[in-house]
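Self-study notes.
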Amino acid sequence: MTRILVIDDDEKLLGLLHDYLVEEHYVVHVESDATRGVSRALSGDYALVVLDVMMPMLNGLEVLRQIRQDSTLPVMMLTARGDDIDRVTGLELGADDYVAKPCTPRELVARIRAILRRTQIAVGSDPSAVLLAAGALTMWPEQRRAEWRGARVQFTSTEFRLLEILLRHAGAPVSKNDLSLRALGRPHARYDRCIDVHVSSIRRKLGTLADGRPPILAVHRQGYQLLKE
């Protein structure tokens, strides 16, 4: 069974999320202490972390920063509704997605399932048999492995899925709505910057092409396009 870690100091919310996730057949550990939460997240025992931004002593953004120093473990952030600064900062630090509080447990579970679907390795497949490549980029989707100019690059699960989609359509633009539906499991909202922030992070990790251009271009009114070089 899939193990999920929930880090939040709101005991009422922790109890609610725990009970609902258990009903959905997840094994859940709740942690109200942020420092212990970091240790548990890095233990290798969990498939995903649900992390609240607003916590005393060590806030959720610092927890996320510490997790990302050593792990690409999927992280779902809980943010205050309308708090775009925390939301964007969390995505820039490597959060896979976010849910604005107050949220329904049903919405949270749907987001969790979307993240877990894209992190699972296909059972019974030969990881070395499936390879995607364009220019200096090579990806093995079943292994969740990517190389740029022969060097391995670490991506979060959401970044990897976005890059895989762009690679499968290399040379052609992909709309933000298609990227959001296929990578995040939800339609793109008008003022949602989630896709933009993830693409920006991917660009930073890849660097530039020989001519100085980024490997992923924004195409006006059409979305994003991975260049074939």
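Second protein, same conventions, sequence then structure:
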Amino acid sequence: MQVECQHRDEHSCRFILSGALPSFANAIRRAMSGEVLKLAIDDVGIYDNTSGLFDEMLAHRLGLVPLRTEPGTYVPIAECTCQGEGCDRCTVSYTLSVEGPGMVLSRDLIPNDPVAAPAIGDIPIVKLEKGQKVVVEARAVLSTGKEHAKWQPTTLCGYKNYPSITIDARCDACGVCVDACPRRVLRLAGRTVEVDEARVEDCSLCRLCERGCLSTGIGETPAVRVAADADRFVFTVESDGSVPAPEILRQSVRFIRTRAGELTSALDEIAEAQL
């Protein structure tokens, strides 16, 4: 199994996974979106809300604001020694007090711990007219996207099979397949068509090039064939700002390794019991 990183920064990550089963690739995808710990507002106390939004909608919007989450800074509330009461080891408190006119933004959420401030400060929450007011206290806790979508650290997390494109000797460079390709993966090269290697990963496997080739009357099989590499995948991950994209990948791999170890131990125990 090999991993080739093509792009990596705080907000996004793109890599190629080779020599893996589709089930393993999907396990990584599910772990990145559903098993990475992240802070999100889970409890809201509304003291005053004369805006145009119902209390429930206001609380919902606050819950979706991405909060910066430093790994290891907090523990899940279920594992904390406070036994669910909420303390500075497992919870972050926020206050929000804004009077109109104006737009209430995510930066107006003031945390008791600056490290857990909103990841993006200009997210609009509600617009206030003159005389309208919002006064709120909120509490954020750690959890995973498996419990609720607001704890998902990714805005985009997916993969596709690596495309494999072949062109046989029957190609007469008519150019129909080149014009049909929406991603411009194919190009004319003299008396034949060739694959632009710099754009091959952009192929969406739509096979419009194959249909275009068949429309020329070449026969029952096209000269250009598009297939999916069964054990090679192109991954793209984008973070919502709460957890850096590389850290999302590291935590997901760590989770899979831990679960694999637990499964191995359980199977060993079963095997020993049967002896």
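Instructor comment on the second fold: The first strand starts at residue 2 and ends at 8.
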